[in-house]
Amino acid sequence: MASQRILVLATSTGGGNWPPLAAVTVDLHQAGHTVQCFGDPTIAQDFASAGIALKVVPAQDTMRTFFEQWFAAGASGPSPLRAWAEACLPAVRELVSHFGPRLILSELFTMPLAWLTKEACGVRWCYVNPGYYFGTDGRRPFDADYIGPPGIINRGELTHAAGEADLVLHGTDPLFDPPPPSLPQHHHYVGPLWWERSKEVPPYLDVPGAPWVLVTVSSAPQPGEMTLAGTALRTLAAFPLRVVLTLTARHPRDELGPVPANARLEEFVSHSEVLKRCCLLVSHAGHGVVTKALLYGVPMVLVPWDRDQPGVAARAAALGVAEVIARHDLTEQRLSAAIHRVLASTRYRENAARIAGRMQARDAVALARARIEELLATT
Predict the structure, then answer these.
(1) Fewer beta carbons under 10 A from the terminal one: N or C of the chain?
(2) How many whole angstroms separate alpha carbon 250 and alpha carbon 248?
(3) pLDDT of 322-352, one tens digit each?
């Protein structure tokens, strides 16, 4: 179709919320649409490091600052998502007046800003949900799927906002997350949406030796989760395996303890490239890395730490591809036993391989673009 102007509202603060939106944004840009992004410096750096010439208009107020202020106030008061949205709205309204977009794209954390912008400017809006469905009629109770300070995610407000979107794209697989019986007509499951700023393969991954294991914690650090990283390293030191642990620069590495001889720490490495060579994922149960493991048929041991991760882990366990350990039950002994069970049984890998075939046959990003272009084609 003819090139259309699209404004993307993005933040890196939400960790895994950003890559699914990035996947759609980059695809629309490469398809010839005129795309601008309102985002933070990390967003601009991600595009620049990937060699993508996409304009990013910097937000003067970073969402992380609002989160820090909110936690400093005792995690009380208005949601930091809503406060950030209200602070950014004047700048976005001005951007809309100059850029003239026909559509706004948002993710979960920027949903309140997209909603306010639609109300103020009358521009149509597509919400890219980065994970599983969380509407009021979902098949699983929200309280069982989500943990963390309740003031961050105002479920009622976000559900209402999603209802105001002209298009909602769920970046997950309906086998992994069965849709509710009453899925609204403007909601569509397109499949997991993955994006990495680089897929360069570190040479050591192809050096012959013991099988690889990927260990992950959240890209948006969660309090206490270095316990998971340290426990995983100590436990895996007793296995004839090689380990890659990914940590961001913001993770407190002094809390990690000694790094075993069979482990490597990486600030960034393509999870896709590691998983292609893996026999196991040990993870915090982020939706992105779990569905990526499914893409490559890798079984898992999951320790959901915070936010939506209990829901992700429960869905993986229901498919028979993962052992799950509750955060408060994590010990080296329990983790070791779970790893032994997954590696010793063929059913986890067989189930993961079956789902991998399904996911590899589906181009989720192309489906997302098709839905967006259908909306843009309507007057």
Answers:
(1) C
(2) 5
(3) 999 999 999 999 999 999 999 999 999 999 9
Beta bridge partners of 307: 147
pLDDT digits (tens, 9 = 90+) for 196-244: 887 788 999 999 999 999 999 887 767 778 899 999 999 999 999 999 9
From CA 132, how far away is CA 312, in angstroms rounded? 8
Cα 187 to Cα 33: distance, rounded to the nearest angstrom: 23
Asked if residue 20 lies in contact with residue 195, where contact means CB atoms within 8 angstroms, the answer is yes
Residue keyed to tokens 């590899």: 360
Place of tokens 């943990």: 147
Residue indicated by tokens 């914690």: 217
Tens of pLDDT, residues 250-275: 777 778 888 899 999 998 889 999 99
Which residue's structure tokens are 């992950």? 216
Report d(CA 214, CA 245) in Å as an integer. Answer: 6
Let me know if 378 is exposed, middle or buried by CB neighbors in 10 A (0-12, 13-18, 19+).
exposed
Q: Which two structure tokens, joined as six digits, stand for 166?
A: 């002209």
Q: How far apart (Å, rounded) are the C-alpha atoms in residues 241 and 210? A: 5
The reported pTM is 0.91
> Within 10 A of 157 (CB to CB), how many other CB atoms are there?
15
Place of tokens 């950030």: 84
181 contacts: CB under 8 Å, gap ≥ 6: 137
